[in-house]
Q: What sequence folds into this?
């Protein structure tokens, strides 16, 4: 029994060291996903700077939907809006601006925006307008183009973390964020 105990200590130590070795060599690959508690969508109507749209999705306790608040995004028909997204972790004091981290690591991130559910009546489309160093889309900046079709819909916003695998494929990587924002086109 004593020989078994003597043998098990080096095996446990080696397992712990091997489990940590990749993180020590490449800490960026093993970063945990940041907590995103608040998302701001800022939009300005093209050719009319007085028309501003804004929506906030906030969830300070991700395990409990009761504390979640979601604004509706009100947009005009047949219009184009220039937009930006802002990500925050407000569980910390002071709050952390996650947008800056995504911007700094834009070669590893991809936002996905789409109408949800994707109905036969497409009310709006979204195009990402910013690029990373490989000329691939990021999505911190985007345009929303509405059609001449009034009514409610949802905007699905996802953020994919794609370190060393980003190639424009929306299916790759881990999902850092996936939310739905109500949209009312009027």
A:
């Amino acid at each position: 029994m004593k020989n078994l105990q003597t043998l098990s200590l080096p095996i446990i130590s080696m397992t712990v060291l091997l489990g940590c070795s990749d993180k020590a060599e490449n800490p960026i690959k093993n970063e945990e996903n940041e907590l995103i508690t608040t998302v701001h969508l800022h939009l300005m109507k093209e050719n009319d700077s007085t028309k501003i749209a804004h929506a906030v999705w906030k969830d300070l306790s991700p395990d409990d939907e009761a504390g979640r608040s979601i604004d509706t995004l009100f947009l005009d028909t047949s219009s184009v809006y220039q937009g930006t997204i802002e990500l925050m972790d407000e569980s910390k004091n002071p709050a952390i601006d996650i947008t800056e981290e995504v911007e700094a690591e834009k070669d590893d991130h991809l936002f996905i925006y789409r109408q949800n559910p994707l109905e036969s009546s497409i009310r709006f489309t979204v195009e990402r307008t910013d690029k990373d160093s490989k000329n691939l889309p990021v999505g911190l900046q985007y345009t929303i183009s509405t059609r001449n079709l009034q009514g409610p819909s949802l905007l699905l916003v996802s953020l994919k973390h794609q370190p060393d695998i980003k190639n424009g494929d929306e299916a790759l990587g881990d999902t850092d964020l996936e939310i739905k924002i109500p949209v009312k086109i009027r």
